[in-house]
Write a structure and sequence with these properties.
DNA-binding; 8-stranded antiparallel β-sheet; alpha+beta; single chain
Length: 220
DNA sequence: CTACGGATGTCCT
DNA sequence: GGACATCCGTAGG
C-alpha cells in the first residue's frame, strides 16, 4: 500500500481516476479501510468508516462474477472504469462494490462492514436493529444506508449520492487478512487471503467476540 | 456458536 | 423449469 500513504498530506485522493486504476485491487481494498463512506437517500445522510472489504480479481478469480470473462446484463458494470459502482442484488438484498482497474479489467472491492458515525437513528429504524447488527455485513450496511436501488450501478461514485472521503481517514492499528466469506468449493480461490478488516473492530462481520478491542475499536 | 431455512432475481437449458 | 447466489435471521445446543 505504498503509494496510498504518499500523497496523504491531505489524505487519499479518491476522486482521481489514478487512485482506482494505477494501484492493485488488493492495495485499494486495504486502503479503503478507515475511509468515510456516506449515502444520501434524499431524506437522510447516513454513513460511517469502512472496516471490512474484499478484493475480487476478475477473469482468473473463480469467486468473481467476471470469472472466465463472463459477461451478462447484471455484471456489465464490472467492465467499466475504476471508481464506478457495481451494485449487485442477491436474494432481494443489495451489495455494494467499487470497480477497480481500467475498463475491461473487471476487478472490484466489496464493502462488507462499516462503523457507523452518521445517521445512527435513521439506520436503526431502517434495520429494526441496534448495535453492531446495524452495519456488520454487506447487505446490512446497504439497508442501513438506504441504498436499495441499482440505479447507480455503473456510474462513477462521485456522480451518485454516495460520498467517499479518505482525507480524514482513520488508520487501522492492524489490518487482518483472511479468506473471503461465502466462497465455498473454489479451491485456491476459496482459500485466497483477499478479505481485509480492521483488527478488533466490532463492526467487522463474523468477528470472534474475544478479539474485539472495545477501547479503540482497532484504530491507531 | 453453529446450522439451517427463508425468500428472490438472474441465468441457462 | 431449475439451479444457484459476494446473505440474513433465528432456533436450538
Amino acid at each position: 500500500m505504498h503509494n496510498l500513504h504518499d500523497d496523504t498530506e491531505i489524505g487519499l485522493k479518491m476522486t482521481a481516476k489514478s487512485f482506482w486504476e494505477t494501484q492493485t485491487t488488493v492495495d485499494i481494498a486495504q486502503g479503503l479501510l478507515g475511509c468515510l463512506l456516506t449515502y444520501d437517500d434524499g431524506q437522510h445522510i447516513c454513513g460511517g468508516r469502512i472496516v471490512e472489504t474484499e478484493a475480487y480479481l476478475g477473469e482468473a478469480d473463480e469467486a468473481s462474477h467476471a470469472y472466465q470473462s463472463r459477461q451478462t446484463k447484471s455484471n456489465q458494470a464490472l467492465y467499466g472504469p475504476g471508481g464506478s459502482l457495481y451494485v449487485y442484488t442477491m436474494r432481494g438484498l443489495f451489495l455494494l462494490n467499487i470497480v477497480t482497474q481500467a475498463v475491461h479489467t473487471p476487478q472490484c472491492v466489496l464493502i462488507r462492514g462499516l462503523e457507523p458515525t452518521l445517521g445512527l437513528e435513521t439506520m436503526a429504524k431502517r434495520r429494526q436493529k441496534s448495535g453492531v447488527a446495524l452495519t456488520n455485513g454487506p447487505a446490512k450496511l446497504t439497508q442501513a444506508l438506504g441504498l436499495l436501488t441499482r440505479s447507480y450501478n455503473g456510474l462513477y461514485w462521485s456522480q451518485t449520492p454516495l460520498k467517499l472521503n479518505g482525507q480524514k481517514r482513520l488508520l487501522p492499528a492492524e489490518v487482518c487478512v483472511s479468506p473471503r466469506i461465502g466462497v465455498p468449493n473454489k479451491g485456491q480461490w476459496t482459500q485466497a487471503a483477499l478479505r481485509f478488516f480492521v483488527s478488533g473492530n466490532p463492526y467487522v462481520s463474523k468477528i470472534h467476540k474475544n478479539t474485539i478491542d472495545y477501547e479503540k475499536r482497532g484504530w491507531q
